[in-house]
Amino acid sequence: NRTVVIVGRPNVGKSRLFNRLARKRISIVHDQPGVTRDVISADIEDGGYTLLDTGGLGFKGDDGNLSLAALTRASETQVDFAIETAQLILFVIDGLEGLTALDMTIARMLRKSKKDVLLVVNKADFDDDKVDLAEAYRLGLGEPLRVSAEHGRSESYLREEILKRIGTVPEVEEATGPKTSADPLCVCFIGRPNVGKSSLSNRLLRSDRLIVSDVPGTTRDAISLPFEFKGRNGKMYPFRLIDTAGIKTQTKLASPVEYFSRLRSLDAIKETDVVFLVLDAIDGVTQQDKAIAGEAVKERKPIVIVVNKWDVVRDAFKKGEDPNCAPEAAIHGFDSERDYRKKYERSIFDSLFFTPGAPVIFASAMSGYEVDRMLNAAVQLNRILDTKMPTAKLNKTINYLTERTPPPAIGGKRFRAYYALQTGNRPFRIKIFCNREEKLTEQYRRYLEAGLVDAFELNGCPIYFELVGKE
Ligand code: GDP
To answer: Which residues are in the EngA-type G domain (predicted)?
Structure first.
């Protein structure tokens, strides 16, 4: 995973070493208890790895004079964290002071973990050997490497050794999903009965698009129909339409047949890359629409919102008539097609708030209006799904978000994110090491998700957070 984590008891010079490797001049020296920044990360570009300093982790922030017990607890938290995240651990000890009981405790934990550990003896500023290497050897963590973070002694040697351990050439980007861009893009329509799913399907599968030679295969009950689409750039994109029998919400299930057809639709969602959620231009966003959108969100699928039957709205305004929108649709006081569209969009943002940034397309199965745009949006979302979020930027963004709007205190304690990294793409998965999982409220989770979607331009793609509590 190309993550290198620095551990060691306070004052051995971890953050100096971090700054040197990260080629930063000086930042906060948080190696003193009390100054906390939890975990600090930097992307080391020439080495292709992420470097973490855990020096602030486990300290409460207000304890000036720490007892040995408190120091030990904090160090254990840091080492735990390192063992869980690191490919390689840099264990720093103080060459001038020699080994302490806490060093021994840390060494014991590291030996037990079977992780790759590089023992770094810091503050070996000069050749005079105040540094007792024999002692360091006794830690049972292999050959110690003498460095001086302060003066840069053995810096290049340390860099080389790190690369030797984690491998110089970054591994071939591990495929995080089953897809490559040459695979057909699977889409499906979900929505209430009569919003126009079948009509939109027929529209997509018309004439030039449908690949007739290919016999529709079946995937777990859902039918999959291949077709091709010429994108905006003139490129042909292979697609598959996964056909569903239409989702019914739980409460409306009348018969076993309906029950099974619902299951089928859920399967369809699972196999889909991008979901088209179809709404009716006249009905507005209904309760049932929300429930159906929820199914897609539960699977963390990217969503394109299609407002179908736009031809009706357009014709009405052309004729100077009222489009007769449903009274329960939260769309009022419109005076033009443009205005109606704006108000419809607003009602989507208000009631489908759990799909951050999903594109909204006003279309018509009947006239074919904007149907290409729907497919272009799907292509775009599919491309977004390949986004890699660099660890340092990810953490900076989360820091920024939590500083801008701090998490609410739950039972006197706030959610606190120590460190995050992306672990997957389809769907986006972000692992967050935090104080306690249960301190993240659903509302705050959504706030973080929306903030990240915004920062990394992941519009329409939900993010799954995997929380690992460390307290
Ligand atoms: P499904 O149940 O979601 O598959 O909906 P259908 O595709 O069967 O469509 C339901 C009704 O809406 C049919 O009478 C269609 O002709 C009509 N319909 C579907 N799309 C449009 C559209 O874009 N414009 C208009 N005016 N009618 C549509």
So the answer is: 185-386
